[in-house]
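Milestone M4 deliverable, item 7.
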Amino acid sequence: MCNQDEIPPGLKGSEPTEKKYSKEAQDETESCEEQKELGALNTTISDSTKEALRNWTKHDDTQETFCELDDDNSSECDYVDLLLNPERYTGYKGPSAHRIWRSIYEENCFKPQEDESTPYSPQQSLAASYLKAVYIRSEMTGLCLEQRTFYRMISGLHTSINLHLSANYLFQDKLGFGNGKWAHNTKEFLRRFDPVNEEQGPQRLKNLYFAYLVELRALIKAAPYILEEEFYTGNEEEDKDVKSGVRDLLTVIQQAPDQFDESKLFQGDHKEAKKLKEEFRAHFMNVSRIMDCVGCDKCKLWGKLQIQGMGTALKILFSGDQIGPHSTINANQKKKFQLRRTEIVSLFNSFGRLSSSVHSIEKFRHLLS
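Output delivered:
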């Protein structure tokens, strides 16, 4: 978190306002001190970054979104350097973490009629028993393509987060303290994804690839639009480097074949399709709200960032003059479609996290071979 007087007006677009940043109390008793230390946000920001973010103002039009967008000018908004707060193991676990994911799946994932033959097992952990039940339900007849898509995207996000925790795991030192080294934890990976330990592990990995392809398709569609963005922060040299890097990335991405066809979704009867789309959007926005209840600051940061990135991807896919393969959105359509700076930032970071997770799978395969 950065102090108000350190935030350039170019980013916040308003006068500094004094505010406090309070941490939510942890319900966990196990490894409490470790959780607080590993889950705390690094609140420092470099002098060069402070200077680079001076003089930025921009008006954003209200758009239909699939995620809850925070108000940049709100006194509750804090600015954080993501490079100083990497997504990795924080020690946040137990009933509190399980409740978050249980709420996401139970309250927001589409489900067919209740299947009494799939009870939750008291012998299993809340998360394990519930996720298994939800997965079985998601594969039942009665879930349409849109509902299965929603579930697979949420599952893919969950898988990605678990992979980052496994790939950036803090090993204890010889004295048993959590100040050892950060490395890939193959035992943790196998516990979460090996079918011997977790029956649905391989399917969850497939859902990760699915979420990756959805966001890849969104970037391909929005590439002409994004290439016309200014990426303005006030530091001319850094702005130039960012725009060059984005152009290089999108040039590579645009060469990839489309693997996801959004035109297959929300078809059929117009009224029913519109109703389903609104329900789809409402569920997704509620997931973003649930992320606010995460008791670990760093976990909350990355959870909200990635769910907003997914929401931005969906906004792109279902916007523009055309929907489906080979359709694009360009700068000439800005009267009908706009992306806020925070949406573009979250989309790139979310796609980066999914890409990193895909790479981590290959790394684990190498370590386990």
